[in-house]
Amino acid sequence: MKTKITVYFIPITHHDLGYTENIEALLSSYCRYYDSILDFCDRTDGYPEEAKYRYTVEEFWSLDTYLSRTTEENRTRMKKRIKEGRIELPALYANIIDCTADSEELIRSMYPSMRYADECGVKITRASLTDMPGLGGGVAEALSGAGIKYLFAGFPRYFEWADAAGKIPEMKHTYWSEQFGRPAAFRWGSESGGSVLTWFQSGYGWFGNNENACVEINGISDIAERLPGYIKELKERGYPYNIMRYIYRGSDNEAPSADICDIVTEWNSTLAGKTGITLEVATDSRFFDRLSEMCGDVPVVTGELPHTDYPVLTLTEAGTTAENRRARHRLEIAERMGADGGDAFRDIILYDEHCFGMSRSCGEEHELDLCMKRKYALRAAYTAKKLTDSVSVRSERLDGVFRFFFPQGTKGRATAEFSDRDIEAGIYRIENLRTGEVTHGQATEITDPLTPVPGLTDIYAESLCSGGARRCIFDLGEAVPMSVGEYRITKLSAVGSSCGMADGNYRFDTASYSLFDCGSGRTLTEPGLGRLISRDIATGKVTEAIVTDAHPTFDGPAASGFMTVSHLPGVPEIITEYVLYHAEKRLSVSVRILLDRTPARETFVAFPFRNDGAEFTYDTPCFEGKAFDTRLEGCNTNHCSVTSRAVVSGKNGRVTLDMREGGQVFFGGLHVTEVSQAHHMINPPGFEDGFVKQPESGNVYVMLAYNNCRTNFSMSQTGEAIYRFDITSSDSRGASVLFPPEEVGENFVPMLPHVIPSEENIEIVHIKPAENRSGTVIRLRETDGKEAEFSLDTGCGGKTVICDHCERPTGETVSGRLKIKPHGFMTVMFTPETTHLL
């Protein structure tokens, strides 16, 4: 008797934003696709149930565009088909490079489709991330925490492809040494215990007898010729399921077709009985629902599969990528102040979508496409600034009183930094009007337009005819998260007091560029802290930047600065500013690089931490990674994607490195860059070797720019990029480094008087207005890997409801203490009893 098996064909289109045609043309193409999809549904209404046309939307951005451009009649038709289950919605907005996001961006990538699903009266159950060799450890947390049950993990086998010369390298690694075969089901687990049922088919899930096969089905004869043999091979390999999944017409931005409906009808009436194989036109969730019935005991995978290609490749657009990450920070500050940043998050996400150009990544259409891509980041930056200005309601600083909002996630010292032409140069006394604490600040003339602070050059240029502009650094003392403080700021002297690059906390050696901790008596770094290096990709030769000028920039009681000018091959000008903050235990390193179009170059900044037996931890979206440890077996260790913070700990203590623009970080040495032959042009020396097993030192290298591509990303780049890094050996988490104070006016009222978790291992990840405007959404995470009970002090009475990550109440109202699992993430909604007044 024939083995009975059902084969599901999933009509779907792989979403590559701007890969096959420029973005605007592609959006128009998808609008035509959805017109056809609706017509296909109408045309096949009378077909047998298993042969009716169904379509799975891979990512929501295409349908979102269609809904905004089509007619009301088509919007009604679309809702009808979605309610019927003929068209299936995805959880995610885009094939986002998940590790380049932060926790909020990853979670917010589900909001648009979830909101539309609510309008349609359906529940989304599946997500897909396709065409990326890697997956962040927090994806399972984000998805399971939003009620998503299923994930299609479309990992490509790029390291088995031929290179640009047509040769298949003899690789000692691919991207993961999984042991359960392909195709296979497993559960991808989060650190806090959630999980999603994951289908691992490799690649897009094409019809074929191996994962790289892409057999187009042009008629029933193609299936009859191949499918029985494919099923036989699966069974001989021990495939345990009586269902199988293949996509139909699912290549890059491929137009959908309803031909499969006629093929399925004919097959089931003529060949199903003879072969034991029944075909069905299905959505992904129809397949997953059947699969879940057969998966009572499948492997559970927990950890990170560090990405190889795409996070590195975003640095082919170094300046815009840095701008997008700064825009995300500013947008999150605006939301913490009470603004609605929803639409701007769409732009942030679309910039982080995995395509940065055409399949042939040069020429006029590629440049046009790239300009359209850059628009997302630039529009997000504009919107974030506009939102911040709208909610801060700045007004006159009456009687020298300044008001600041503190968007930081933990208690700690806060330093305000801003530019202002109305504040005179000099030293200032700062009095906290609530606590009486007295601190100091300074305002210095901006004399160098190339100082590596975003926007400073424009401020300098605007002030040339108006008496100059000032750079202000104000120590505001201890601050409470999400609160507002009032300070009387009085000028003391027109002459700065001298501190230089040494104080009671640190001494920065301006000759060797090394950092000494005065309190512990430890030298924290080897010489060369903040030095830029370049690596020739073809030869592997490393070149250190040549310093042509070095000088102090400013001095005062709050901070002192020192600047260097240097250059590298491919980077004709590098401006590096070191700032020592005297009231905090902190040194910042800011870098402005000017790039020319030299190809086949990588640029890094070095942090040579002196620490034997170093261990490295870092944050990624909804996950804390530990280099060489929390990864899955056999996957990439050469570099990791860091959202904003890395910690180096060992025999020489602990040092924290904060990165405002995030980064692709090489821990323990400058290893080979692992971009596969699917994307890179030149195989670098050592590329075929295995991944690094152990760190060589405490050194940390952060990649700033990359030029070695042959598709999807530019081959070379020009322009400037600005980065900022902050170093501390204090146990403090550097509360205000990533989310610094924001000046507000007297009419600004925060959403809550403050938000203070009772336990130190609970950090505020984000706070925002609820989507339904009925309260304040607070996201929290546990930072020490310990289960915790805690309470939230919001400064006012009210009701706390536990929600999923997309703000839907789980039904549990909390009257006492909250419970959170080790490394857990939690979303709650707080509704005040009455509107609070300051």
TrEMBL record:
Pfam families assigned: Glyco_hydro_38N
Gene Ontology MF term list: alpha-mannosidase activity
Coiled-coil blocks: none
InterPro entries: Glyco_hydro/deAcase_b/a-brl, Glyco_hydro_38_N, Glyco_hydro_38_N_sf
Example GO BP: mannose metabolic process
Positions of the Glycoside hydrolase family 38 N-terminal domain: 6-293
Top-level taxon: Bacteria
SUPFAM superfamilies recorded: Glycoside hydrolase/deacetylase
Protein name per Swiss-Prot or TrEMBL: Glycoside hydrolase family 38 N-terminal domain-containing protein
